């Protein structure tokens, strides 16, 4: 059988540095676990603009659509700040998400015990935390029409429209229920059905999908403002949270910060399954290109490495190998390995990006 294919788009700033460590880990799985991938590399963001005058070349887009999964580093940087909006590095990322129709954005908030002190919450509230926010990514108020700033009488009015079709809600609800079955089997759906019609429809459709096809999964509904409160009051009550684009944007950032550093946070964006059952998929760290530390070997590669672990689990059905990689990360943190972003107030000597890669590879070797 042919190897599964990966398209790597390392991007700008620290993107290539952190992705360099992921490539070493991909090679390790090929050598030691008989899990080889056919890997192709291409440009995105500022790097693509520099070469092609566009943040995503059509050929790269075609490769992304054909690949079994795309791994992305980060895009952007001050060099590109003055560019026209249409060719800014972020447009490359937006085009990928749009043309791959990645409607389900998975943002785990997982707290490694060794880093529980980094959270802004008390340690016992977050130690062992493992929740997943599923955010609808391609519709809702960021896309709804009409939108714009219009003249109305003697003043202007700014308009955005929250709009969801039943099928858009249905497909993201299914993706949340499927995920829950692989985890703690609980879904909490969040909207504002008390004040928004789109929220009423959201609640109805999620309940219908549940009753018809996922009655084995425990489902609850919560108003999103209460959800925000509960996330900081008692986050461990949740397993999978499913919500719309706007609330998901806010709630996932809030949940992410429960766990400490930006350098630790992976994400996945999934689309509809192909004929072989694999969803269209893009995996990327939550952080940006960190121009302030780019090129200095200081970046924490763990967010990007954990994004590859998500690819193993959600694109390649290798949950055991994903867990092996996550455990290796947990082990090196428990052993005290820290990049600069993970240094506490007590200080110490941070290790470099590649030394963190070395440590994780050694922990993977030890797992055999
Ligand atoms: P950022 O995430 O790049 O950096 C924020 C802070 O976190 C910086 O101090 C940075 O040094 C630190 N940081 C981020 N990732 C780190 C890592 N892996 N290890 C150690 N420290 C890390 O956000 P920003 O500074 O607001 O944006 C910088 C550029 O990145 C901008 O051009 C922005 O548009 C872009 N950006 C891209 C993405 C993406 O590619 N998905 C996301 C956010 C921002």
Automatic annotation (TrEMBL):
GO terms for cellular component: cytosol. Its main location: cytoplasm. It is an enzyme of class 1 (oxidoreductase). Substrate binds at residues 97, 107, 135, 225. It catalyses: (2R,3S)-3-isopropylmalate + NAD(+) = 4-methyl-2-oxopentanoate + CO2 + NADH. Residues 5-360 form the Isopropylmalate dehydrogenase-like domain. Pathway: Amino-acid biosynthesis; L-leucine biosynthesis; L-leucine from 3-methyl-2-oxobutanoate: step 3/4. Its EC number is 1.1.1.85. Binds 1 Mg(2+) or Mn(2+) ion per subunit. It is found in: Cytoplasm. The record marks 142, 192 as: Important for catalysis. Mg(2+) binds at residues 225, 249, 253. Pfam families: Iso_dh (PF00180). HAMAP family: LeuB_type1. Belongs to the isocitrate and isopropylmalate dehydrogenases family. LeuB type 1 subfamily. This is 3-isopropylmalate dehydrogenase. The gene is leuB.
């Amino acid at each position: 059988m042919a190897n599964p294919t990966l398209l790597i788009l390392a991007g700008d700033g620290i993107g290539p540095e952190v992705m360099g460590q992921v490539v070493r880990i991909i090679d390790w799985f090929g050598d030691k676990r008989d899990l080889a991938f056919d890997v192709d590399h291409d440009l995105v963001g500022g790097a693509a603009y520099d070469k092609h005058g566009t943040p995503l070349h059509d050929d790269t887009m075609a490769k992304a659509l054909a690949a079994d999964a795309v791994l992305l580093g980060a895009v952007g940087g001050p060099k590109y700040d003055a560019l026209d909006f249409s060719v800014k590095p972020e447009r490359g990322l937006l085009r990928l998400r749009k043309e791959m129709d990645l409607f389900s954005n998975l943002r785990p908030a997982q707290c490694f015990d060794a880093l529980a002190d980094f959270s802004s919450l008390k340690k016992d509230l977050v130690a062992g935390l493992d929740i997943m926010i599923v955010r609808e990514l391609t519709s809702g108020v960021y896309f709804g029409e009409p939108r714009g700033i219009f003249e109305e009488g003697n003043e202007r009015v700014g308009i955005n429209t929250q709009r969801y079709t039943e099928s858009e809600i249905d497909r993201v609800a299914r993706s949340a229920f499927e995920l829950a079955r692989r985890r703690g089997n609980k879904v909490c759906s969040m909207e504002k059905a008390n004040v928004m019609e789109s929220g009423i429809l959201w609640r109805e459709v999620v309940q219908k999908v549940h009753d018809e096809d996922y009655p084995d999964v425990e489902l609850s509904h919560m108003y999103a403002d209460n959800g925000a409160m509960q996330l900081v009051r008692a986050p461990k009550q949740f397993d999978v949270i499913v919500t719309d684009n706007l609330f998901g944007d806010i709630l996932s950032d809030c949940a992410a910060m429960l766990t400490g550093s930006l350098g630790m946070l992976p994400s996945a964006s999934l689309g509809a399954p192909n004929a072989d059952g694999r969803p269209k998929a893009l995996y990327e760290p939550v952080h940006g290109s960190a121009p302030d530390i780019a090129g200095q070997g200081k970046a924490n590669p763990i967010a990007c490495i954990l994004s590859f672990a998500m690819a193993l689990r959600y694109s390649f059905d290798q949950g055991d190998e994903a867990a092996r990689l996550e455990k290796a990360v947990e082990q090196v943190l428990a052993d005290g390995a820290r990049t600069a972003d993970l240094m506490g107030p007590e200080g110490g000597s941070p290790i470099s990006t590649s030394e963190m890669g070395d440590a994780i590879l050694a922990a993977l070797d030890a797992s055999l």
